[in-house]
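Dear colleagues,

I hope this message finds you well. In preparation for our joint manuscript, I am sending the Serine hydrolase domain-containing protein (Sphaerisporangium corydalis) sequence together with its predicted structure, so that both groups work from identical material. I would be grateful if you could confirm receipt.
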Amino acid sequence: MTAQGDCDPRFARVREVFEGNFARGEELGASFAVYLDGEPVVDLWDGVADRHTGRPWVRDTPVLSYSCTKGVTATALHMLAERGLVDVRGPVAEVWPEFAAHGKEKITVEHLLTHQAGLPVIEREVPVEEFEDQAAIADRLAGQAPIWEPGTAHGYHALTYGFLVGEVIRRVTGGSVGEMVAAEIAGPRGLDLWLGAPDDVTARAGQLSASTRTTTSADGTGTGEDGTASDPGAVDAGGDEGGANRALDAVMGGRGPGDPLYEMAKASLDKDSLMNRAMGNPSPGKLKGGANHPVIMRAGWPAMGLVTTARGLAGFYRDLVAGDIVKPETLDDAIRRRVQGPDRVMFVDSSFGLGYMRSGLTFLTPAKGADSAFGHTGLGGSIGLGDVRHGLAMAYNMNKMASAAGSLRAFRLVEATYNSLP
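The corresponding structure tokens are as follows:
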């Protein structure tokens, strides 16, 4: 098999890895793009955009990239901070007074960006009728109390991150994150990147797919967030304790209690765990086709709603790394590690700057990029990555979701890219 697209001869190994992912049967459709010092050096794609119809994956096939969205949302916030419209270190309640309720008056915007706010779960079930009403969902969070003391620990706010940061942006600009992204990031740069996809984009988008579904998500539909067993590609525990234990053993291969990866997998099989509660409300699984449903793509949830091509997301990081979206000093401060260590929601160690993931178990990078890479991963295996030191920007997206055991597809591509540098 020969992948479609272009690849600079210096990055021939990247093409080999991309094609190898398909040869091993790990892909349906996928794309990978790399910029080096602002110039395109890799733009590859291949496979099937829709396994039901056989529609091919073409150069401009976009796909929902889940939590890769968070890096774009964070950047929109930093643009406002540069203009003096938001104080990242100031209380959220300065721009969102209702948020101060239930002891939240000291929670800062930085706490939101670093997953330290103690609000990883929306306690009351969000009905489908509110899926396109981000302000209503944010209002639910304003009426809650934190489940840990803000600033004392971090835990992945898989979905609530977007509604929280998004409401700060809405209070300042009067519009949604998606509107700001379209007007000030994607539109002026001609990037194939939408947070709130129009119908014509939805119609040609890749369809997320997996061979199995789990029955253990928060609402029993099999839809979750960011690589846990509640995603559509996870093992099926069969709805019984014995089945869950067998599934856990199959996923973990000998790991035991106390091991963070074991505890993460165990939590993913428990519909009442903090992890699944954080990742299952609001649930795209309430709609036919889950995250493929036009309502989800149109809603533009600021934590997981990004619809983009790999070239579009890599182009975003290209311009971010070049200092064309925010000032270099703003980005340098934003990617500085603020938290690192055990994650209250995910169990494994995670590390964040102001809205961007840094190298760790949740954002795997090769040694050459360990101190300089930043960006965000997404459910199923997608990734967007920037690296100022090496002048790199890259993105990978696909439609075959990774299982609970995870996937090394993106890491192999990132590693091959770094290894191809002079």
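For the figure legend, we might mention the following. The chain has a mean pLDDT of 89. The chain has one domain: 1-210+299-422.

With kind regards,
E.M.
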